Amino acid sequence: MKDLIQIISDEIRAIGTNIPILIVLILGNIGYGFLYNLLYNTNVYKEAPIAIVDMSQSDLSRHFIDYIDATQQVKVVVKTQNFDEAKRMVIEREIVGFLYIPSELKEEIMKGNQAQCVVYGSTLSFLEYLNIYEAVNFASLEVNSELLPEVIESLNLVDILFIANDKAVNIVSEPLYNVSEGYGTYLIPPVMVIIIFQTLMITVAMRCGEENTTRLRDEMTASLGHSAKIVLGKAFTNVMIYSVFSVFFLGLLPLIFNLPHLGDSIDIIIMMIPYLFASVFFCLTLSPFFTDSDMPLFIIVFMSVPLVFLSGISYPLELMPWHWRILHYLIPTAPATLAFVKLDCMGGDLSNIRTEMMILWIQCAVYFVTALIIRHKATKIK
Amino acid sequence: MKNENHYSGFWTVVKRECQILTSRPLYLFTALIFPLFALLFMTTIFGDGMINELPVAIVDEDNSNMSRNITRLCSAVPEIRVTQVLSNTAEARDALLSKDIYGYLIIPDNFESDVKANKNTTLTLCYHYAFLSVGSEVLQGFLNVLRTIVIEPLQQSTDFLGVDNETLESIVSPISISAHPLYNPSLNYTSYLTFPYYWVLFQILILLNIAYSFGNEFNSGNIRDCIAKANGKFITVVLGKMFPYIITFSIIAIFANVMMFDVLDFNLSTNIFSIIVICILFIIATCSISLFIFSIYPNLPIIISFISMFGSLGATFAGVTFPVNAMYPFFEKLSYFFPIRHFVVMTDYLRYESHAFIYYWDHLLILISFNILIILATFILKRKYLKLGIRN
After folding, report:
1. Domain boundary pick from A165, A194, A219
2. Of A165, A192, A214, which marks where a domain is finished?
3. Which residues constitute the domain of residue A67?
4. How far off is chain B from A304, nearest CA to CA, in Å?
5. What is this model's ipTM?
6. In a shared domain, residues A280 and A311
């Protein structure tokens, strides 16, 4: 026990006197945390510029356009009768898409036929496409319900006028767990968990790299018990430090930036314990690759985008090929991200994250053993 | 004679850099294996690229013929697949939290009898929006089914009046919207994300490799030897050290483009040569900005952390998922300092529009302008080196 306390205090001293590690810890964590939140703080993509190719030029088409313009998703910046002009504007990125309204809009409807309007939306960003598609669909539903009695009367089908008054089936759609339907509120919570993993990995790996280059390791002892104490000492030190940063990332920032924060604090703490330990052990297992203190950044920063994908937040895990799904179970951040989203964004409790907790504890045990073997072998070699 | 010296100095530095690159397996990973891993990852991670057959549930509180019919219809659209029929909302919420389903439709008690009696009734569809892309697919899937379902009960009431299904649909939805997604008609995620995100990953490696290469020289003091080999010319050191990297990365870029556009048949509206040229220009611009950032504060551990952050921000400022013009104006302006932003704009044109040079020449000019930073960085590094030399 005395040894362990000594190792922890040595480790704290080593971290506290290493300027690059302190920079990553303090500036990196705080800077990253605030910057990412600010980048996505606008949250919802509003008023995407669109054009309308209005070949109808009728009061009905103008009414329809007014409805579209009133939605928060788009802003009608041009009304034209020139299809090619609208196409050119898309190419020049002045608009994200346009709606084509046919010339015989009103006539067709009054004859009892459907009038086809076409949405041409740019898919260079799927958000842009969704905006124009949703806005036009919403407006069409509103105009359609307004038109119903008029159409029935014009077709002389007054016998079925009741369907205009009796909406037999209403449809209500309810987006769950992201009430503002924002991009920031969707992306930032998982990204915070990934940043914790990344900067923790960088800190631990920089220490390993430093030890590898300056041969600071305790060369006197090669007993398995002592190696275990070193591994545990390093883990406890980093978990203690990152407990503070976890409160910053998962407790404070969601409050400052109005992110979803439905989880019970105790549940989140219980989830974070195996996550932080598994992350440290995982990093110590990889320590032979960290041949100097700068090398870890290559691997860890390079993995930032893949980690977002592997968490299954942006693309469903079950649609990925099996070999990438395996990676999801091997890296602690993937199940932890999912568990955190379930707890804090979806308001779940520990019973809902049983699978993720099991994976994290298994990772903890396995990576502790592998970290111990690696450490023990390294001291033996020396 | 002077030119000859300059020429031989350049090749000596190049040879020296190649020796460094082959001296440790580490460089093999950072300059070759990782970029190829990124290519493998980004081309395969999305499977076939289509978000289809997402598991959903029906909360059938009615348990009638009509509700069973709705369940059957929901299974028939490609976006969703009914995996569970549940009796209450609590079970559905649990399934959602366990990630067994991504959404559910609530068919209320007495649904069929209410419809037949022409009473108002409501179908509620709930979709998982903490997973944005998945949620919007579930919503689309359900809405596609429900459009027909809404008409179905009306049809029973209007049948005897001789109003056929088609007329009824025209009456209920006189304005019909058809979608024409430009550039990516099937809304395929591989077509959408693979190319730009491969380059987001690659630029992180380019940035780090260059900063690391120069940082190591300054950190270890080997820069003196390098300058001696370059016949005292600092610009020769800079160009000679960058040259092997640019060649290696360019070869990888050619391979990646051939893989994506020739083998995997990604959409490309222009010839592959044009996109390779833009990729090489992007590689050089990224090398330049990495060198420039390093020259401002040539302390390896600190600056490499900053460059890591710069590289990671490239994923955001590329503007592929969240448009940069949707961010605060300051960040939109800031994105112009990231070569990846210009690269994505240009390659979007090359991938989807032929003869589009007129639309992206300004971005090309900015990308080329990044190379001025090489001269600036050389000047700054030389001054810092001389200062250090005088102090020593």
Report:
1. A165
2. A165
3. 48-165
4. 7
5. 0.89
6. yes
Contacts of A297 (CB under 8 A, 6+ apart): A202, B208, B304, B305, B308
Mark yes or no for CB contact A133/B179 under 8 Å: yes
Any domain includes A126: yes
Tokens at residue A68, please? 């579209």
Q: In this structure, are A75 and A154 located in the same domain?
A: yes
In a domain, A176, yes or no: no
What is the rounded distance in angstroms from the CA atom of residue B59 to the CA atom of residue A110? Answer: 39
Residue B103 corresponds to which tokens in the numbers above? 């959404």
Q: Does residue A75 share a domain with residue A13?
A: no
- Taking an 8 Å cut-off on Cβ atoms, the answer to whether B356 and A313 are in contact is no
CATH 3.40.1710 segments of chain B? 54-172
- DSSP track, B216-275: HHHHHTTHHHHHHHTTT-HHHHHHHHHHHHHHHHHHHHHHHHIIIIIIS----SS-HHHH
Q: How close does chain B come to A137, measured CA to CA in Å?
A: 7
Closest-CA residue of chain A to B170:
A114
Any idea what the Cα angle at residue B347 is, between residues A84 and A37, rounded to 5°?
A: 100
Residues of A with CB below 8 A from B204's CB?
Answer: 301-302, 304
Token pair belonging to A24: 């990553």
Residue B1 pLDDT grade (very low, low, confident, very high; cuts 50, 70, 90): very low
pLDDT above 90 (res B361): yes
Residue A173, in any domain of the structure: no
- Give the per-residue SS3 of chain A: CHHHHHHHHHHHHHHHCCHHHHHHHHHHHHHHHHHHHHHCCCCCCCCEEEEEEECCCCHHHHHHHHHHHHCCCEEEEEEECCHHHHHHHHHCCCCCEEEEECCCHHHHHHCCCCEEEEEEEECCCHHHHHHHHHHHHHHHHHHHHHHHHHHHHHCCCHHHCHHHHCCCEEEEEEEECCCCCCCHHHHHHHHHHHHHHHHHHHHHHHHHHHHHHHCCCCCCCCCHHHHHHHHHHHHHHHHHHHHHHHHHHHHHHHHHCCCCCCCCHHHHHHHHHHHHHHHHHHHHHCHHHCCCCCHHHHHHHHCHHHHHHHCCCCCCHHHCCHHHHHHHHHCCHHHHHHHHHHHHHCCCCHHHHHHHHHHHHHHHHHHHHHHHHHHHHHHHHC
Split into its structural domains, chain A has a count of: 2
The 10s digit of each residue's pLDDT in B106-139 is 999 988 888 777 778 888 999 998 888 899 889 9
Chain A residues inside the 8 Å CB shell of B176: 114-117, 140
Contact call for residues B257 and B195 (beta carbons, < 8 A): no
Residues A159 and A191 reside in one and the same domain:
no
Do A18 and A150 reside in the same domain of the chain?
A: no
Chain B contact probe: residue of A301, A318, A344 with most B CBs at under 10 A: A301
Quick one: A60 and A121 in the same domain?
A: yes
Are A201 and A100 in the same domain? no
Span B294-342, pLDDT tens digits: 999 887 777 888 898 899 999 999 999 999 999 999 999 999 999 999 9
Check whether B347 has a pLDDT greater than 50: yes
Pairing of strands B80-86, A74-80: unpaired
Residue A84 belongs to a domain with what CATH number? 3.40.1710.10
In a domain, A177, yes or no: no
DSSP tally for chain B: helices H, then strands E: 18, 5
The residue of chain B nearest to residue A310, with distances taken between CA atoms, is B45
Tell me, yes or no, whether A153 and A242 share the same domain. no
B50: chain A residues, CB-CB within 8 Å = 319
CATH for B54-172 (3.90.1690, 3.40.1710, 3.30.870, 3.90.1570):
3.40.1710
pLDDT band at A4, cuts 50/70/90? confident
